[in-house]
Amino acid sequence: MAQSTMTEERKAILEAGGFNVDEAMKRFMNNEKLWTKFLKKFKADTSYENLVKAMEEKDQKSAFEAAHTLKGITGNLAMNRLHELVGEQTDYLRDESSDFEAAAAMMPKITEEYENSYKMIEEVYGE
Prior knowledge:
mainly alpha; elongated
């Protein structure tokens, strides 16, 4: 089994940024290198940008798809704070009885958490 190279300093930074490091290490078989690879892929993922665009265009269906994708990615990466926010937003957008305005009102907090997560990945792993 691969060993984690997670230092206490890295762990503290990431956990302060809303990541659940212990959960991530379980999901990634205690292989920090593999988790890091996927965190770096997160930075290239376009789901957040798609969500922003769909919300600006008031496109509920596309917003749901983007939010749902982002929810899945953040859940798999144990980015718990962002995952919880996007999960709540996904519920608002889920079907024709959706509350688009409530979902739209969440965007400032989601944006703040997304940017914070992005910065944490850069701070801890560079690039």
